[in-house]
Amino acid sequence: MRIDVVSLFPDFVAQVAGHGVVGRAGERGLLSLHGWNPRDFAEGNYRRVDDRPFGGGPGMVMLIDPLRAALAAARAADPAPARVVYLSPQGRPLDQAKARELAALPRLVLLCGRYEGVDERLLAAEVDEELSIGDYVLSGGELAAAVVVDAVARLLPGALNDAESAAQDSFEPPADGKGGPLLLDCPHYTRPVVHALGAVPPVLLSGNHADIARWRYQQALGRTWQRRPDLIDLTALSPADRRLLDA
Ligand code: ADE
């Protein structure tokens, strides 16, 4: 997969996202990451990339033309069609299903804004979708782009060493496609068995794979209900059980 990042700080995205699994995906030839700086496509001595907003107000807005030229260069660098994603708090929230959808594409172009944002006409003409990484405001799209690169790269076949570990993540649905709630991950333990901070739950030492799987599922279900009840469809429960949970 090829990911192009259009940003005033393209190296920053590669730095933040370029370690561990993502770095290895690059080394294994599963992912190629390319940066494009709109300033390199800006005209004039000052290479201006922004200007004041019409209608007044604080901050600056990114100009259409440098971004458009950078996007055109990114698109032209490879013949495969590219999905162009703009990172902004106004976007649809990123989730694991979206990461999976993006990981199945041959190409992705991530557009990062700075300042107050990007001229809306550029977005309307060039952007296929807008994604947010959460309900808070970052000072630019770069950290959000790094999040997308990481979430997508680790889903590329061969990126993870243990083929099972992506399937067992929080938010990954079961491989049988039967749906069920998306659950948070269960707790994990490693050596030593007994530590001043506590002991490892005995079931994990039992060697009984069915018992271990059941325990992990119970833990995942319990944590999800306690921490993220919004992820579980409580309408499947009887009214009496629901009253019990609410109490
Ligand atoms: N740019 C600024 N804030 C952002 C957010 N929350 N998600 C995605 N891109 C952003």
TrEMBL record:
Query: Quick one: which residues bind S-adenosyl-L-methionine?
Result: 113, 133-138
Q: Per its UniProt record, what SUPFAM superfamilies does this chain match?
A: alpha/beta knot (SSF75217)
The EC code for this enzyme is 2.1.1.228
| Top EC group | transferase
Q: Does the keyword Cytoplasm apply?
A: yes
Catalytic activity field: guanosine(37) in tRNA + S-adenosyl-L-methionine = N(1)-methylguanosine(37) in tRNA + S-adenosyl-L-homocysteine + H(+)
Regions annotated as coiled coil: none
Principal cellular location given in the protein's record: cytoplasm
- InterPro entries (UniProt xref): Alpha/beta_knot_MTases, tRNA_m1G_MeTrfase_C_sf, tRNA_m1G_MeTrfase_TrmD, tRNA_m1G_MTases_N, tRNA_MeTrfase_TRMD/TRM10
- Identify the CDD domains for this entry: TrmD-like
- Subunit arrangement? Homodimer.
User: What role does this protein play?
Assistant: Specifically methylates guanosine-37 in various tRNAs.
Would you identify the family this protein belongs to, as annotated? Answer: Belongs to the RNA methyltransferase TrmD family.
PANTHER family xref list: TRNA (GUANINE-N(1)-)-METHYLTRANSFERASE (PTHR46417:SF1)
Name the chain's protein: tRNA (guanine-N(1)-)-methyltransferase
Organism of provenance = Luteimonas terricola
